[in-house]
Each structure stands twice: as structure tokens, then as C-alpha cells.
Write a structure and sequence with these properties.
Number of domains: 2
Radius of gyration: 73 Å
CATH superfamily of the largest domain: PAS domain
Shape: flat
Strand content: 5-15%
Helix content: over 70%
CATH architecture of the largest domain: 2-Layer Sandwich
Order of helices and strands: HHEHEEHEEEEHEEHHHEEEHHHH
Distance between the termini: 41 Å
CATH topology of the largest domain: Beta-Lactamase
Number of strands: 12
């Protein structure tokens, strides 16, 4: 969008909005930082003001309180056994106290014992100070504490009893001690209306409000006099809203309080600060509070922001005017330069034209450099013109040379084509021989592989036969052991046979002896018969065992003979297998030699074929190069003609410039 605008408008549409944006951002940043810092400073200032004004309020009591303490000391020195010898001793003291303390409306002395007869009560009536009548003194005694006071006490504003006046006073009582023992109290009645007027005149920062609250949350001084003497819970709900309980707790506990809230009564944000006030040596501190709108804290910042905004607007207007003047000052020389360039681009391109150089700024430097550029263009065009003439003569010579080289290249192309055809035929023959040699080598490798497999088979067979021979040797050994065992069994059987025959003979002899013995040897005869029967069975079994042993011995001898024959045959087969393996190994060596020779022949033939193919490709490449050279020569001839035409055109174009 900016490309279609003038330089002056570009400056206006870029610098002015950017400057305005930066300035507004700066104002916002300054306002925010100033707002935060101002709020903190204002809070500190308000706290300082609150403590200062609280000190002023305490000063309202301190002067009279100091005088009352001195009076209390004087009274304690006049006491005798806790009583004044004469009540008139207290009269000048109390009168002097009222004269010196304008804020005190009443002063009294109440002894702990015989209060009715020994009490003294003085009043301020306008400008007069007088002794209170007996009726009023009795009314005062009715509301005052009769017990001993261990420390100073202060009460909320209330009318003096029996005085008939509605003006409230603040009662402050000071214990009077004699020998460390409380014997009575000295009381002061401060003018609550006077304190109300003083507090009402306090205006923090000129817009704030101040109030004083007693320990029992009863208002002592307030901007609205109708609320004085009433409890905060009854009057301040419309101002504090939901923060009323916080304020009441802070007053009762004698603690400081800081609140920032939107007041329902004022309809805006309010900053409120409560400061505890300890009057004398009392244990019930009062609370002094000030409240002011939060906007009052920031009025200076808002004023500063408004001034900065007005100053920024004025600065932007001034900047826009300066940009207009600057754009006009820049656009005039630039327009002259554009006009000069337009004249150079059109018409007869007069290089003798020069721009006027005025001043020493950037535009003057631009005009000076542009004139230098035109001088360089004059020199360049002159050199181009002379070069174009030389180029035209050179192109004519180049055209003649290209014709001669074209004829030579054509002849070379024909001869190289014939040589390439012959080399291609020879390469085909060599490739066929290499193929046949490769097939022979492949067949030799296959035969070698078959022989290797046969040799492996024979070796496996030889190993198996050898294992069988070893097994037969083990069987032969076991058979021999079996034969020996059968012979041993035969010997044992012969022994058993002899034992059986002897047992039979013994049984026969036993039968003969039992027959001789008669009836006494009948049982022995029975045993002899059983032994003879056992001998017969043993002899019969022995004969069976002998027959079986003879058969086993015969079979064992036959097996030993067969195993011996098989062992001899296995040993012969192992020897034959070893001879066959050695023969196959020799065949493998011979086939390997044939394979190596075939491989060498195939490799040599392959290398020869590769060389022939490379030579053929080289000749083809040469033929192609010759063809390309022929074409290039033709193209050179054609381009030399184009170059001659371009040189002529260049002369025509250069002649347009006026030097």
C-alpha cells in the first residue's frame, strides 16, 4: 500500500503513528508505575498524617492531664490518713486546674472514705469558675465509681449529672496515692463539644474525614454531629458496609486497621485508616480514624497523565508539520533527478545531460554521483562502440575458419565410424570366447564339488566301518568272557552233580541204618526218603542245566567264530575305504588344477573382452565426439553469422548515444 504513496505521505503514515503509539505506550507505563508508587507513597503519607493528627488529639488531653497529675501529687502530700484536714485545701488546686486548662469543664476530688463530706467539685460556667452546689456534687457521687482506682480511667462523653446542661463531657479520673496506697481520685471533665469541633476541622489531604471512637465503640467526634455519643454499630453501617465488624473489633482490641473498600454511602472506593490512641495511663485506648476517596490519592498522577497527553498531541502535530516540510524539501530535488532519468531513458539518450549540484546534503551527493555515473557511461559506451567494430571483423574471420575446420572434422568422423564398427565385431568375438571359458570353469567347479561330495561320503563310510569294527572287537571280547563264564558254570554244575550223587548215597545209607534200627529209626527213614527224593530232583535239574550250558557253549563258540570273521572283513573294508579316499583326493587335486587353469583362461579372456569393449566404447565416443565436433563446427559457423549480425545491431544501438 505504501508503494503507491509519495515520500511525504510515507513519512506521515509511518513516523507519526509510530511516534504516537510509542508515546501513548510510554504514558500508560508511566501512569501505571506512577499509580502504584503514588498509592504506596500516599498510604505512607496518610499514615503519617493519621499519627500526627492522633498526636494532636492526645495533646488535647496531655496538658490538662499533666496538670492533674501534679495536682494529684500536691493533694497526696496534704492528706492525713487518707483525708484532707480541711476540704477547702482542694479548692484552690481545682480552681487553678480549671484556670490553666481551658478544655476542662469540671474538676473534682473524691476521697475513698467519707466521700459525701470530703468531696470537692468545681465547674466552669462560661468564663466563670465556681464551686458546684451540694445537689450537683451528690448527683456526681451517684455516678462515679466508689472503689479504689489502680490506674487512670476515661469514659465516653456524657452530660454532667445534676448540672442541667446537655453539653457532654469526657470524664478522666486519676488515682491519688499516699504511701503507695490509693486513697481517692482526682477527676476531670473535658469538653466533648470542643473536641468534636477540633476533630471536625481535620481534613486529611483537603478531602478526607476524621472521627474519634471510644473503647466501647461509642463515637466521641464525627463529621456528622448527630452521630456523636452513639455506637458505631448503630450509625456506621451505611458507610462501612460489610467491613463494620472489622472496625468494631479493631476499636475494642485497640489495634490499627487499614481498609480499602467501596463505600455504599459514598458510591466510590474509600481508603480508611484507624490508629489507636492511648490517653494518659488508661488501659482502654480509643481509636482515631480517617477516611478519604482513593481517587484523591491519584489526582496528581491523573493530572500528570493529562498533561503528558496534551504535550504528546502538541508534539505529534509539530512532528507532522516538520515531516511535511522535510518531505517537500526532499521531494523537489528527487523530482528533478527523476525527470533527468526519464529524459535519459527516452528519446536519443543524450549522455551529455548533467544534473545541477546545489548544497552539500545527501541529495546533492546523489546528483554528483549521478553525474559521475553518466561520465562513466560515456566512457563505457565509447569502449563498447570500438569493441563492437573489432567484434564484427573478428566474427568474419571466425566464420572462414569454421568452414575449413568443418570439412576436416567430417572426414575424421567417417574414418572413426569405420574403425568403431570393426572394434565392435572384435569385441563381440572376444566376449563369446570369454563366455565359453566361463562355462568350462563353471562345469569344472561342479565336477570338483561332486568329487568333494563323493570323498566326503567315502570318508563317512570309512568312519562308519571303523566304528563297526570297534563294536565287533567289543562284542568279541564280551563273547569270550561269556564262553569263560559258561565254562565256569559247567564246573559249578559238575560240582552240584557230585553233591547230588553223594546226597543220594547218604540218603541210601540212612535208609539202611533206619531199617536196622526198627521202630526207633522210622522217623529217620522218612527224612532219608525225603533227602533221597530231593537228591533225585537235584540230579535231574543238574542234568537239564548241563544240557543247556552245553548248548550255550556251542552257540557261544559259533558266535565267536562269526564275529572273528566279521572283524577281519571290516578291517579289509576300512583299508579299501582309505584307498578310495586317497584316490578321490588325488582326483580332486587334478580337477582343482584344471579349474584354476580354466579360471585363469576365463579371467584373461574377460579382461580382453573388457578391454575390447572399452576400446569399442572409446571409439564410439570418439565417433560421437567427431559427430559433435562436426555439429559444433556447423553451429560455430551459424553463430559466427549471428555474431556478425549482433555486432551490426550493436553498432546501430551504440550509435544512438550522443557523446
Amino acid at each position: 500500500m505504501l508503494a503507491n504513496l509519495s515520500l511525504k505521505n510515507k513519512l506521515l503514515l509511518t513516523i507519526v503513528p509510530l511516534t504516537l503509539l510509542v508515546y501513548l505506550s510510554t504514558i500508560v507505563m508511566v501512569y501505571r508505575s506512577s499509580k502504584a508508587s503514588t498509592e504506596e507513597l500516599a498510604q505512607v503519607a496518610v499514615e503519617a498524617i493519621a499519627h500526627q493528627q492522633a498526636a494532636e488529639i492526645m495533646g488535647y488531653f496531655d496538658g490538662a492531664l499533666h496538670a492533674a497529675r501534679m495536682t494529684s501529687d500536691m493533694l497526696s502530700r496534704e492528706l492525713v490518713d487518707g483525708q484532707l484536714p480541711d476540704s477547702r485545701i482542694a479548692d484552690p488546686m481545682l480552681e487553678s486546674l480549671l484556670h490553666n486548662s481551658a478544655q476542662v469543664k469540671a474538676a473534682w476530688w473524691l476521697p475513698l472514705r467519707s466521700a459525701k463530706s470530703g468531696s470537692v467539685f468545681w465547674l466552669r460556667g462560661g468564663s466563670d469558675i465556681q464551686l458546684a452546689p451540694a445537689q450537683q456534687r451528690e448527683a456526681l457521687l451517684g455516678v462515679m465509681e466508689q472503689g479504689p482506682l489502680e490506674r487512670e480511667t476515661i469514659s465516653s462523653p456524657r452530660p454532667l449529672p445534676g448540672s442541667g446542661s446537655s453539653r457532654p463531657v469526657i470524664s478522666l479520673q486519676i488515682p491519688v496515692r499516699q504511701n503507695g496506697r490509693v486513697v481517692g481520685s482526682l477527676g476531670l471533665g473535658f469538653d466533648a463539644d470542643q473536641l468534636q469541633q477540633r476533630v471536625a476541622q481535620l481534613r486529611p489531604l483537603g478531602v478526607g474525614l476524621a472521627a474519634l471512637t471510644a473503647h466501647d465503640t461509642r463515637l466521641v467526634a464525627h463529621p456528622d454531629p448527630t452521630r456523636v455519643g452513639r455506637l458505631e454499630a448503630e450509625t456506621e453501617g451505611d458507610f462501612l458496609g460489610e467491613h463494620l465488624p472489622d472496625m468494631i473489633n479493631a476499636v475494642r482490641k485497640g489495634e490499627p486497621l487499614t481498609l480499602r473498600f467501596v463505600s455504599p454511602a459514598m458510591g466510590e472506593e474509600v481508603f480508611m485508616l484507624g490508629v489507636p490512641i492511648v490517653i494518659g495511663d488508661t488501659a482502654t485506648p480509643w481509636s482515631f480514624g480517617i477516611a478519604l476517596p482513593s481517587a484523591a490519592l491519584l489526582i496528581g498522577v491523573k493530572t500528570l497523565a493529562l498533561k503528558l497527553l496534551l504535550l504528546g498531541c502538541f508534539s505529534v502535530l509539530l512532528l507532522a508539520g516538520m515531516i511535511l516540510l522535510l518531505g517537500r524539501a526532499l521531494s523537489s530535488p528527487l523530482s528533478a533527478i527523476v525527470q533527468a532519468i526519464r529524459q535519459l531513458a527516452a528519446g536519443e539518450a543524450d549522455l551529455r545531460l548533467r544534473l545541477p549540484v546545489k548544497g552539500s546534503d545527501e541529495l546533492a551527493s546523489l546528483a554528483k554521483e549521478f553525474n559521475g555515473f553518466l561520465d562513466s557511461m560515456v566512457n563505457l559506451v565509447s569502449q563498447i562502440k570500438s569493441t563492437s567494430q573489432k567484434l564484427q571483423s573478428t566474427s568474419e574471420e571466425l566464420q572462414q575458419d569454421s568452414r575449413a575446420s568443418g570439412a576436416v572434422v567430417n572426414a575424421q568422423r567417417d574414418e572413426v565410424g569405420q574403425l568403431a564398427a570393426a572394434m565392435q565385431q572384435m569385441a563381440a568375438t572376444v566376449e563369446e570366447v570369454a563366455h565359453n571359458a566361463g562355462q568350462a570353469a563353471q562345469i569344472t567347479r561342479e565336477g570338483d564339488l561332486a568329487v568333494a561330495q563323493g570323498q566326503a561320503t567315502v570318508a563317512n563310510l570309512s568312519a562308519a566301518i571303523a566304528k563297526d569294527a570297534q563294536l565287533l572287537e567289543q562284542v568279541t571280547a564280551l563273547t569270550v568272557e561269556l564262553s569263560d563264564a559258561s565254562q565256569t558254570i559247567g564246573t559249578v554244575v559238575a560240582v552240584i552233580r557230585d553233591i547230588a550223587e553223594q546226597t543220594n548215597l547218604l540218603a541210601l545209607n540212612a535208609a539202611i541204618e533206619s531199617a536196622r534200627a526198627g521202630e526207633q529209626g522210622r522217623g529217620f527213614a522218612v527224612v532219608a526218603d525225603e533227602v533221597r527224593a530231593l537228591a533225585r530232583r537235584t540230579h535231574s535239574s543238574t542234568e537239564d542245566v548241563c544240557r543247556n550250558i552245553s548248548m550255550i557253549q556251542g552257540c557261544t563258540r559259533t558266535v565267536v567264530e562269526m564275529v572273528a570273521k566279521s572283524l577281519g572283513t571290516s578291517q579289509v573294508n576300512v583299508a579299501s575305504a582309505q584307498e578310495a579316499s586317497e584316490a578321490l583326493h588325488r582326483i580332486t587335486q587334478m580337477i582343482g588344477q584344471v579349474r584354476d587353469m580354466s579360471q585363469q583362461i576365463a579371467t584373461a579372456t574377460g579382461q580382453q573382452a573388457t578391454t575390447s569393449e572399452q576400446l569399442s566404447r572409446s571409439l564410439v565416443t570418439i565417433a560421437d565426439s567427431a559427430e559433435s565436433a562436426s555439429c559444433s563446427a556447423h553451429q560455430v559457423h551459424q553463430r559466427s553469422q549471428d555474431l556478425q549480425l549482433s555486432a551490426g545491431s550493436l553498432n546501430v544501438l551504440v550509435s544512438r548515444f550522443k557523446l
